[in-house]
Amino acid sequence: xDDDLQQLLINLKLKKIxxxxxxxxERAEEEGSSYTELLSRLLREEYQEREMRYLGHRIRxxxxxxxxxxxxxxxxxxxxxxxxxxxxxxxxxxxxxxSNIVFxxxxxxxxxxxxxxxxxxxxxxxxxxxxxxxxxxxxxxxxSLADRSSRKLLNRLxxxxxxxxDEMGYLNLRPEQSNIFFKLMEERYGxxxxxxxxxxxxxxWYGFLGQKEMVGALxxxxxxRCTTIEINGPSLRGPE
Length: 240
What we know:
Oligomer: single chain
CATH superfamily of the largest domain: P-loop containing nucleotide triphosphate hydrolases
Number of strands: 5
């Protein structure tokens, strides 16, 4: 490889082609590949390498706290989940429909793992998403009241193609936090899907969110387009 070609590849940020070009040229010469085949091979490798980098960036920004994937989920240990239902959701048509998903079940039954697995599928398809513990979300909402950045927080979350809120449960909330949460769900309604994992049935949401009328309106929107999956199975954290 001459210096001019090397510098061009550096300037164009074609890192993968720069790495594989000598070996690829040698292989093409041995196989008698056409110029078109050679170019296609180089560009395909560059594209795949770039897509992997972008995926890694999306995964880091999504703040995934668990290494779960749907392929690694212990289906045989959780009879309370119908695998066919999850695999249908993994086709991601619910994202285009802006349809929500709510996992209801006791601690350790795999709610977080399934939500993370679906989020990873979305990230692999180029979607922007984020995983958040519900407590962290409400803490951020409370902090935003102090510096008047609630609108900025809502705008950031509203732009996400896919939002996962994990462990929605009995939290000590101020009315202001509940109000911001209602606003978030209202703005995402009909536009962007949200996954919520919780150990609470819908009728119990009134207890921790308060404001009966607003909770009723929230649940109407949340459940309008929604797949609710109740996991009645054993904890996956027990002895194997």
